[in-house]
Amino acid sequence: MESGLLVSGLGVSVRDGGRILQGVSLEVRPSEICALMGPNGSGKSTLALTLAGHPRFRVDEGWIRLDGEDITRAEPEYRAKKGLFLAFQKQVEIPGLPIEDMIWEAYRARWTGEKRPSLIDFRKRLMAVSSGLGFGPELLRRGVNEGFSGGEGRKAELIQMLMLNPRVSVLDEIDSGLDVDSLRLVIQSLREYVKGGGSALVITHHPRLLSMLNPARVYVLIKGRLVEVGGQELAELVEREGFSRWGEVGDGQKSAERRSGV
Amino acid sequence: MGRRALSEDLVYELSKSKGEPEWMLQKRLQSLRVFNSKAVPTWGPDLSGLNLDDLSYYVRPGVAQADSLEELPADLRKTFDALGIPEAERKFLAGSGAMYQSEVIYERMKRSLEAQGVVFMSMDEAVKKYPELVQRYFMTRCIPPTYHKFAALNGALWSGGSFIYVPKGVKIEKPVQVYFLFDHPSMGQFEHTVIVADEGASVEYIEGCSAPAYIKGGLHAGAMEIFVGKSAKVRVTTIQNWSKNVYNLVTKRAIVEEAGRMEWVEASFGSKVTMLYPSSVLVGTGASAEHVYLSFANDGQLLDAGAKIVHAAPETSALVVSKSISRGNGRTVYRGEVKVNKGARGSVSSVRCDSLLLSDESSTETLPTEQVDEEDSEVSHEASAGRIGEDQLFYLRSRGFSESEATALVIRGFMEPISKKIPLEYAVEFNRLVELELKGAIA
Questions:
Q1: Which residue of chain B is at minimal alpha-carbon distance from A82?
Q2: Which three-class secondary structure string do you get for B113-175?
Q3: Contact A97 B416 (CB under 8 A)
Q4: Which of B392, B399, B415 lies closest to A80 in CB terms?
Q5: Contact B413/A81, CB-based, under 8 Å?
Q6: What is the number of structural domains in chain A?
Q7: What is the pTM (predicted TM-score) of this model?
Q8: CATH code of the domain in which A207 resides
Q9: A53 touches chain B (CB under 8 A)
Q10: pLDDT tens-digit map of A114-171
């Protein structure tokens, strides 16, 4: 049986706007970490949001499959329940809704049938996961992303991933705003998650993160198209030369990104 | 005077039937004269749909409430079903069941409080048992009959409500709760509550009823007078849900002495029109007040509410937090007033009101008034109005929540400053009420 995330020939437009992604094909198999690299504005976040089903983006062609099921047009909540997770780059604030409560609601909704998770066990696990990332327990009582620093926001996303234990996680710029120590903790958690059978698509424009993750495949996205696929050596190439070999200095797509509203 | 104005005969009859002392009859008659001399206020919501022509309608036993459950509007019956209200309670809410005498409830609580010298009973009983004490506080310097037309109406026709007197230094640990305030057919309309906390005393009073209280006449004009003594503390929590034919015109006012503290917690659901502006008059140095308020206006409703703060002494402080939610074509208004008198040096007032609009047809308005006559003071007002963001909804949906679950979660967060103040035993019902309002299943 086919498993993991499979994307084929994806063409995506922004609602009321132009085409952003063209012919994007990639795969993330179980227990794999793959990487998506590209300069600012190349369409990385658009791809992440499209995979999760954001209504702002429209799939014009191609398809997305998760564990063999076509989810190209599925509701975001359906994809989530099937085991797709998106760690957001942009911090979305939900004032007054404690992050702990939100995770608990999401967590217990995953359980069906007779077996009900206990709040006590959930709490224990949440505390362990949070302290493993150096995320203070007092932050768990704060509203979702309410007054979080960049680093706290990243960690809060990771905590959700580790608690909900999805099949495939798309991590959008999970390293931004993290100090060296925090980055190490994040990478360690990510490795454990993958060891436990999860898989991850790590989106970044920082090659350094990838040298620590040793990805199975590295995809390079330029102006909405995948221009190259390779292994770790591709990330190293980007680290040395940037994206200039694909005719990019990194700012050319800014206007496109602004147009798309991402 | 208007045509068929409220007659003196009716007031005599009411006072006599209750066996009241002469001074209370005179208080009623004085209030009646004020009521008949004042025009219906026009500065706020449209009250032209309110029938004030024949007020005997509201007072004569057995007339105001429904005679049987079948007489209740269908949507209200549906709500009773949704809330799982037992049959006996439904009858009571409809005013046709006599088994839930509030006296019984009072008796139970009274015994433990009496030992501490606390007076806690229905207002009707207090008038007879503690006439001097009641006379000192009832519609004197807190809410005099001249306060406004509907306060005067309450003064003329009041029935029911609680009287609480907490002696010097007595701190009542457990909240004093009154679930239902009805034991006379008209009690649902014009209840009158007085709470007095003497120096250093403290008390928390909770009145709540999540089931929509039905009044055939469609008018509720209650009154509440609070006296917070020196260094005393009073918190009043009200969770109320009126059926959607009701004009809910409530008068609430507290006088707070030196270093005293008054806290108002209000959650308003239901009604056709609500006008509710709890007022805190800070008359002693260092007195403080906190007002937290939540309103939910659904289709066809106008909830016009706010807070009135008077800083009449130095170093007084007030915090007002108002949260309103509108759905369908529901409307909410924040109407507030902050007054800093000359000489109230070092006083601080902070008002924050947030509105959430759940539909295109819903609306909200913020109408704050400030009158600052003391330079050495700080008055701030912050307001926001908005909708649930597409990104918020998407974020939660990407965690597996349906769109309506996601909406409910955002609202839960929005209400948090209020809901965290609501006692635990009321929180479940409170959440259920919000859920029902969101589903639109509620009457």
A1: B400
A2: HHCCCCEEEEHHHHHHHCHHHHHHHCCCCCCCCCCCHHHHHHHHHCCCCEEEEECCCCECCCC
A3: yes
A4: B399
A5: no
A6: 1
A7: 0.85
A8: 3.40.50.300
A9: yes
A10: 677 888 999 999 999 999 999 999 999 999 999 999 999 999 999 999 999 999 999 9
